[in-house]
Specification:
Elements: E1 7-8, E2 19-23, E3 28-32, E4 35-42, H1 44-55
Antiparallel strand pairs: 1-2, 2-3, 3-4
Length: 63
């Protein structure tokens, strides 16, 4: 995974507990800065759907 350029949000403080994001042509990679060996891989469309659903409150009452 080191071949990708990892970025963190400008809203994250300088602490070690933030989410890093890297992208390739067909995938989005997510990891926690304090555990960089664990990487979640998804597609741009799936991540976009997750973010929209979260903002719309669709995950507020997950059982």
């Amino acid at each position: 995974m080191s071949r990708y350029q990892w970025r963190k949000s400008s809203y994250s403080p300088n602490s070690s507990n933030c989410v890093n994001v890297a992208v390739s042509d067909h995938a989005v990679f997510l990891r926690e800065s304090d555990d960089p060996d664990v990487v979640l891989t998804t597609t741009p469309a799936a991540l976009r759907s997750f973010i929209r659903g979260t903002k719309a409150g669709r995950l507020d009452h997950v059982k």
